[in-house]
Write a structure and sequence with these properties.
CATH class of chain A: Mainly Alpha
InterPro entries (chains A, B, C, D, E, F): NiSOD_sf (IPR036502), Superoxide_dismutase_Ni-type (IPR014123)
CATH topology of chain A: Four Helix Bundle (Hemerythrin (Met), subunit A)
GO molecular function (chains A, B, C, D, E, F): superoxide dismutase activity
Protein name (chains A, B, C, D, E, F): Superoxide dismutase, Ni
CATH architecture of chain A: Up-down Bundle
Number of strands of chain A: 0
Mean pLDDT of chain A: 88
Enzyme class (chains A, B, C, D, E, F): oxidoreductase
Oligomer: homohexamer
Helix content of chain A: 55-70%
Structural class of chain A: mainly alpha
CATH superfamily of chain A: Nickel-containing superoxide dismutase
Low-confidence stretches of chain A: 1-14
Pfam families (chains A, B, C, D, E, F): Sod_Ni (PF09055)
Chain lengths: 133, 133, 133, 133, 133, 133
């Protein structure tokens, strides 16, 4: 990823609903990268114990993706954002579904993980536009 | 922070002990930024209900800092790193203490949050050196 | 896992994202009723220790409301529902905000808890219509 | 379940040990329904990845059943109840065991899930009698 | 405590409901000792920030006491034990209540913490008798 | 909080970072004994459902070992201890690694569990020396 090439940078969210005011879609994206990485490792390792751990850990990371996205959708994005980006609700709904049973949770295919990453990338694009605005 | 000026970047860790192979001190640093932000907001708001929530939420974020640091110390850094950087154990021990009762947890002074951030910055520097090596 | 570090927590959802197929907005509503009940008890009891506990427990219950609602929005409601009820995304977004810092989390006023309950009631009405369909 | 036939009703418990005063065995029952549903789905799907997820999720739901029952037993039921219903302790002990390793956790047989539901139904009956008293 | 005087011993429980077969009331007792220690420290420190943290942390430790006791009651003790010790159900019910809102959670008085410890000591006595049997 | 989303979890530590002042390596050791016990039972039971549960539960117990050790390393041991016992940092780092993916988490071989127990025994020895000092 570009970020790793460019060096260390501040990213992940610190959602605390105080509110803290610190948000970043990167946290959801990183968990999704873990999900995809686990799917790839699963495909490359047939050991049943390894695979059992992979499934368990992927389940947890995917749940974290859902949570990070939900937090952005509820705590960061406000009514004016949803007016400016009428596709935003649907995008978040699709992304959180893509992290769930019908998406990355329910499959060990890295293509599912990539679909999730692609949806998060769309959210990330809008997020930074709102930050710049 | 530089990262925000430079735009969106990939950061946070995806610790899963599978292992996933994805680590970044930014996650600890972001939680520490939240801790400091909460301390600052606390100083600026005397409402007892707000302050009670701030203390509770800071406790949780500070615990997350400890966890992220512990994970880096155990799961990312290996014996060769500790040989090359003999100060690394002490640095992690000080940083995790700085996130705890004797540091950021036990104080609403943003200076304590900054001390924690400074220690994390030292870890971050070494981390990226090991990545580049 | 982060959850273990943070201590024991109650997770009372009928959400299992297997998927299980069992959903009911009542769970969100009950947590919201607890939130309002805590606000009412807080107003009637000035003991500082009681009030501190009330704030802490309300924070947890309100977070559960957010989670239950998010799960319904992502795991139960599907695209056809959102087409039939175009107001549904906004309704869920408002309801989850009403459970958060700008709503029930950030206030000990039972009126805020009632606002949250009213929004959940609107969701509940739509939910049962989809069930009957 | 009667509650679903009769329409949406107050279901889940809001255990908060403040105390909140809101309890309902339905929450334990719903989790037990999830457990049984997972057992049924497991029997009908031989995919090893699906089965691994089913086992993991059932473990979590069953643990929730135990917790909801424990909370009722400790926080809702009082000494006069135990005097009036001398079988109540044993009933709760059997029900929480039925949710555990020797019961629903340790088996993918829906009959085990049904045994758990039957025990919860007995608790539910007594619960509503105490409410009516 | 006897265990500390006699040297380090097997203390905490390893409840895993696999079952693992490793149980010890000491874990509940240790958490109760923490609860009492927090109550004592609270009485000796009037700083509002310290007190807020103390209340929050005591709430968590007390909840752990409840959980450890519940696990012993459900996972360790069996029907023959309850026959041999007919007071056991009531003892566990009183102990878990003593850790809750009407007991140690709801008070910063170390006497409440001591009451909880006394009840746990009674459980511990019976526990070791069953182990010796 | 993330922890709520992830489901109910047991957190059995005497760590409260208030600070409470109550610590004992026995807790880490007991969890490690559970880990080894699970590995032994796994070897003796080929039932796929049992094995799946064993892997899942061992993962959780091993994570608890890591946490208990980290807490001792950060919250109990102080700078003078690390000066007196210069091997202590390395010992803790090895022990937490032994509880992780390269150790007990990643293997169903009881020998791995025993290695972890041996490292904890070394920590325990130093711990009680510091207590006696």
């Amino acid at each position: 990823m570009l970020s790793r090439i460019l060096g260390p940078r501040l990213e992940a969210t610190a959602h605390c609903d105080l509110p803290c005011g610190v948000y970043d879609p990167a946290q959801a994206r990183i968990e999704a990268e873990s999900v995809k990485a686990i799917q790839e490792k699963y495909q490359g390792n047939e050991d049943p114990e390894f695979r059992a751990r992979a499934i368990q850990i992927k389940e947890q990371r995917a749940e974290l993706v859902k949570h990070h996205l939900w937090v952005l959708w509820t705590d960061y994005f406000k009514a004016p954002h949803f007016e400016k980006y009428p596709e935003l609700h649907t995008l978040f709904n699709k992304a959180t579904k893509a992290a769930g049973a019908s998406g990355a949770k329910g499959s060990m295919d890295p293509a599912k993980g990539q679909e999730l990453l692609d949806l998060i990338a769309e959210i990330d694009k809008i997020f930074w536009e709102t930050k710049a605005a």
